[in-house]
Design goal:
268 residues; alpha/beta; 5-stranded mixed beta sheet; two-stranded antiparallel ribbon; 7 strands; 10% strand
Length: 268
């Protein structure tokens, strides 16, 4: 069964004189070095996710906890970032995401060798002229129909995609596969379909999360915590795996160069 490839970056370009940019300088003038630090932390998070980062209440709470800065202070900085053009104010208000033209350009440049790059249509801030170097553009509209577009020829064709029923079967098949890998199989029925979908999107990365966690527990047992038990399956599958994602681990796999195919998707 095919697995969605990782969309985030392992590293991203950062200009040595970024603090000389007027937009960044304005934030630093308003919020001090804290404002500058929040910008860098947000860029790190955005590129680790891809070319945008959701900014709903959940992400705000988690980000605030991770950087140990009051959530109201962070939102004040982000409001000014959108005001001065560091992030798109339109997409922040409409879709609650953080992104910009510059972020998207740098993301596409960094993923030039990938075989497949997925982009949500509504989130795209770049025009066709910026996409001319990509071989293919495939649009999946809100009605769940694929529209393949060659940006150079403007040819459009339609093909059907798997129905949601088949998608759920794929989620369940993958869930059963990874559930067998986990040592403490308690609470299987308390993993929702939505969560199964999220785990399916992680693909092999989630398998690595299980492997890392099992190894971590074994190491701790060897170092004096003999009675340490594995989390219940429901706990690990719902939230416990987060600390063992590639972005939080030192043994994350390296990306292999591949031929590029750009895919643009509607929001869904």
């Amino acid at each position: 069964m095919a697995r969605p490839q990782k969309v985030g970056l392992d590293y991203f370009p950062l200009d040595v004189d970024i603090d000389q940019d007027d937009k960044v300088a304005l934030i630093e003038a308003q919020h001090g070095i804290l404002g500058f630090g929040i910008i860098i932390k947000l860029l790190m998070k955005i590129y680790s996710e891809g070319y945008f980062y959701n900014w709903t209440e959940k992400e705000q709470i988690l980000f605030s906890r991770r950087v140990n800065v009051d959530i109201n202070t962070i939102n004040a900085i982000i409001e000014d970032c959108s005001k001065w053009g560091i992030f798109s104010s339109e997409l922040l208000k409409k879709y609650e995401i953080l992104t910009s033209k510059g972020i998207q350009v740098r993301y596409f440049e960094a993923t030039m060798r990938r075989q497949r790059v997925e982009v949500i249509k509504e989130y795209l801030l770049l025009g066709k002229s910026c996409l001319k170097d990509f071989d293919k553009v495939v649009i999946v509209d809100i009605n769940r129909v694929n529209v393949n577009i060659n940006p150079q020829l403007d040819e459009v064709t339609e093909t059907s995609i798997p129905k949601e029923k088949n998608r759920k079967e794929e989620y369940n098949t993958f869930f059963e596969e990874v559930w067998k890998l986990y040592p403490n199989k308690k609470g299987k029925g308390q993993v929702s379909t939505t969560k199964k979908k999220e785990l399916y999107k992680l693909g092999d990365e989630f398998k690595r999360c299980i492997s890392r966690y099992v190894k971590d527990v074994e190491e701790r047992r060897k170092n004096g915590f003999k009675d340490l038990r594995y989390q219940d399956g429901k706990t690990f599958f719902n939230s416990g795996y987060v600390d063992y994602l590639d972005e939080n681990s030192e043994d994350k796999p390296k990306m292999k160069p591949r031929k590029l195919e750009l895919v643009i998707r509607d929001n869904y």
